[in-house]
Structure to design on (151 residues):
């Protein structure tokens, strides 16, 4: 794993990234365009085990020419790391050992709330909101990271 600052120094133009929101039951996936302007919700993967996740990620990476992985880091509101953040870090390390791409963590505080609120503004009904909340949260995480990389 690397820091976002290290990734920023290494990245080239036309770099598509994948964003992940690692939930306890589902994993939200988003991707961005080559110019890193817009993060788009992509899909939701059921969380079975790390091997299943890595296999699904490899498929998505190959099909979409992905060059980096952004994983939401669920740190506490006070900035400390709790059990969820430690779990995400462990899974992130496993992903980085299995996939030969730069992997970095991005602060995901309020990403699910932000994704839910955004879908509320779009007048999406509650069942559709809940069905896509994981991939929308992943897009929220990825958008924050690409905004940072572009500034």
């Amino acid at each position: 794993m690397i820091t976002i600052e290290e990734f920023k120094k290494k990245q080239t133009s036309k770099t598509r990234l994948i964003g992940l929101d690692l939930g306890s039951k589902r994993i939200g996936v988003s991707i961005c365009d080559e110019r890193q302007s817009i993060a788009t919700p992509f899909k939701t993967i059921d969380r079975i085990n790390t091997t299943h996740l890595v296999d699904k990620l490899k498929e998505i990476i190959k099909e979409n020419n992905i060059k980096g992985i952004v994983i939401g880091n669920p740190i506490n509101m006070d900035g400390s790391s709790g059990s969820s953040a430690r779990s995400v870090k462990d899974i992130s390390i496993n992903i980085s050992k299995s996939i030969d791409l730069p992997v970095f963590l991005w602060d995901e505080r309020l990403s699910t709330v932000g994704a839910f609120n955004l879908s509320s503004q779009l007048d999406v009904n509650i069942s559709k909101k809940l069905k896509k909340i994981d991939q929308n949260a992943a897009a929220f995480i990825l958008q924050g990271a690409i905004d940072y990389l572009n500034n």
In short: The chain has one domain: 4-150. The longest strand covers residues 39-46.
